[in-house]
Amino acid sequence: MGNERIVIISGPSGVGKSTVVSQLLDRSPVPMVLSISATTREPRVGEIDFQNYIFLSDDDFQLRRDNGDFLECKEVFGRGYWYGTLKSTVESGHSDGKWVLLEIDVEGAIAVKQQKPDTIMIFLHPGSMGTLEQRLRDRNTDSEDSIQRRLEVARNEIGKSNLYDHIIENKTINDTVNQICDVLKRLAG
Question: What's the domain range around 74?
Answer without folding.
Answer: 6-188
